[in-house]
Design a protein that fits this description.
This protein has 309 residues and is α/β, with parallel strands linked by helices. It is built from twelve helices and eight strands. It has an eight-stranded parallel β-barrel, surrounded by seven helices. α3 (60-65) links the parallel β2 (42-47) and β3. The radius of gyration is 20 Å and the shape is globular.
Length: 309
C-alpha cells in the first residue's frame, strides 16, 4: 500500500469545543492558518452547530470567511441539513456528519436515533453532491459508549456498510472516550475493511488512557491511511463524560514517519502552532513533541574543563 497519509487536524473544532473560556475568533483563524501553512493536508476548521449547545463555535461563519482561499483543504462539521445549508453558503466543499454506534449516545449528541440519522444522511449526501461537496461520517463510540458500555464489533461493521451505501466518502472509526487498545483497533479495522474499501476508512482516537499514538500506529500497520488528531493534543467531547483530548497531531505524525509514512507536514512548524495555541489558551497542552522539541540527533559541543587551581 501507499505510505502516504491524509492527516486531518481537528484542533480548531474538536479541540476547542470543550474549552470553557471563549476563544477569540482571531486566535481560531490564526490556528487554522498556522495548520495550513505547516502543510497539514486537511483542517477541520469549525462546525455549524447550535450555539446554545456549543457556544465556543458560534463564530463559525466568521472563521470560514477568513479562510476562504483555502476552502479545498477545509472540512466543517454539520449536525443536520440546516448545518449543510450554512456550510454551502460559505463555499465549504467537505463536511462531516457524526453518527453514533449506539442509540443512547446518538440521542445525547444529536437528539435523534441512529436510524433517523442514517435517513437524514442520505438526504444530506444528495444535496451536498449537487453542490460538489463531499460528505464524510464520523462513527462515534465505535469501541465503547459511556452509556451502553462495550459496543459489539458487528454492529459497527454493519453501520460502516450502511453509511457507505448511503453515499459517504469516508467513514471515521472514532474512539470517542479513549477506551480502545491497539488490538481493538487492528481487529475492528480488519473487520470493517471487509464491509467497505479500506482506503475510505479513517481513524479518530482520543488519548484519554495514553494509547492514542499506539492506536494510530496499529491502524497504519493494518492499512489505514486517513487519520484525525489535534495540534498539541487539545480537545474533548462535551457529550462524553471524562473524555480528554484528541491524539496529538505532531506526536502521532512523528511516530508514523518513523514507520516510513509520508505526510507532507513540517513538524517544526506544527510544533510552533501548538506553542502559539498554548499561549492563546493560557495553558499547557497535553502533547509532548511541541514541548520537548524534535530531536535532531546531532552532536553537541561540550565545553572544555577548566584547569584545576
Amino acid at each position: 500500500m501507499s505510505a502516504a497519509v491524509l492527516w486531518t487536524d481537528v484542533a480548531p473544532r474538536d479541540g476547542l469545543q470543550n474549552i470553557a473560556a471563549t476563544v477569540a475568533t482571531d486566535a481560531k483563524v490564526r490556528l487554522v492558518r498556522g495548520l495550513l501553512d505547516a502543510g497539514v493536508p486537511r483542517v477541520e476548521a469549525t462546525a455549524f452547530v447550535s450555539p446554545r449547545w456549543v457556544p465556543q463555535l458560534a463564530d463559525a461563519a466568521a472563521v470560514l470567511d477568513a479562510c476562504g482561499e483555502a476552502m479545498q483543504r477545509i472540512r466543517v462539521l454539520i449536525p443536520n441539513a440546516k448545518g449543510l445549508e450554512l456550510a454551502l453558503e460559505r463555499g465549504v466543499r467537505n463536511v462531516l456528519v457524526t453518527i453514533a454506534a449506539t442509540d443512547t449516545f446518538n440521542r445525547r449528541n444529536v437528539n435523534r436515533s441512529v436510524a433517523e440519522s442514517l435517513a437524514e444522511l442520505e438526504r444530506i449526501v444528495d444535496t451536498a453532491s449537487d453542490a460538489g461537496c463531499a460528505v464524510d461520517v464520523a462513527l462515534s463510540v465505535c469501541f465503547g459508549c459511556p452509556y451502553e458500555g462495550r459496543v459489539d464489533r458487528s454492529r459497527v461493521v454493519d453501520l460502516c456498510a450502511e453509511i457507505v451505501q448511503r453515499g459517504a466518502a469516508e467513514v471515521g472509526l472514532a474512539d470517542t472516550i479513549g477506551v480502545a487498545t491497539p488490538s481493538d483497533v487492528t481487529g475492528l479495522v480488519t473487520r470493517a475493511a471487509q464491509a467497505m474499501p479500506l482506503e475510505r476508512i479513517s481513524l479518530h482516537v482520543h488519548d484519554t488512557r495514553g494509547l492514542g499514538v499506539a492506536n494510530v500506529v496499529a491502524a497504519y500497520q493494518a492499512g489505514v491511511r486517513r487519520f484525525d488528531g489535534s495540534a498539541g493534543g487539545v480537545g474533548g467531547c462535551p457529550f462524553a463524560p471524562r473524555a480528554t483530548g484528541n491524539v496529538c497531531s505532531e506526536d502521532a505524525l512523528q511516530a508514523l514517519a518513523s514507520l516510513g509514512a509520508s505526510h507532507g507536514v513540517d513538524l517544526d512548524s506544527l510544533c510552533r502552532v501548538s506553542e502559539t495555541l498554548a499561549s492563546d489558551l493560557g495553558q499547557d497542552l497535553p502533547g509532548k513533541l511541541y514541548r520537548a522539541g524534535i530531536w535532531k540527533a546531532e552532536p553537541v559541543a561540550v565545553p572544555a574543563e577548566s584547569e584545576a587551581g
